[in-house]
Design goal:
This protein is of the alpha+beta class. The protein has a single domain, classed as Nucleoside Triphosphate Pyrophosphohydrolase (Alpha-Beta Complex). Helix content is about 25%, strand content about 35%. The chain is globular.
Length: about 150
């Protein structure tokens, strides 16, 4: 919460980083709770910490939220997101977790999860997850938020 207050006071957006996992035309998603975008389906992600690279952030968030260690990362997209009474510059990656099975390591952050077919996704999707999956399908790398 401190980060959001400081960002608003300074009149600047926050930096968000996310990582999606796709396996056999299925994506792992979890339903958010207790934060902005509540009840939407999302991938692992969070705020970029001071001194962290984007890749370090993606790996840290995946480990903290889903208990998985991410191997290689592939850049998906960069987005300007103004939603949920927030403003974020967001970077999304596709992450390799091999045969690890994600678990809800932060039960206060997510209520349920699962692997979903890319052509039959649950709704509503968290905006950053929607852009990441659209990028995965289309190759588009920038979303202006308009």
């Amino acid at each position: 919460m401190y980060t959001l207050v400081v960002a608003r006071e300074l009149g600047r957006p926050l930096v968000g980083v996310g990582v999606v996992f796709v396996r056999e035309d299925r994506v792992f998603l979890a339903r958010r709770q207790g934060a902005h975008g509540e009840e939407t389906w999302a991938s692992a992600g969070g705020h970029l910490e001071w001194g962290e690279t984007l890749e370090e952030c993606a790996r840290r968030e995946a480990l903290e939220e889903l208990g998985v260690t991410v191997g290689s990362l592939q850049f998906l997209c960069f987005s300007n997101i103004i939603a949920y009474d927030r403003h974020y510059v967001d970077v999304e990656f596709l992450g390799d977790i091999g045969d690890q099975e994600p678990q809800l390591a932060e039960p206060e952050a997510f209520s349920e999860s699962g692997w979903f077919p890319l052509d039959d996704l649950p709704e509503p999707l968290f905006v950053a997850a929607r852009y990441a999956l659209e990028s995965y399908r289309s190759g588009q790398t920038y979303f202006s938020g308009e």
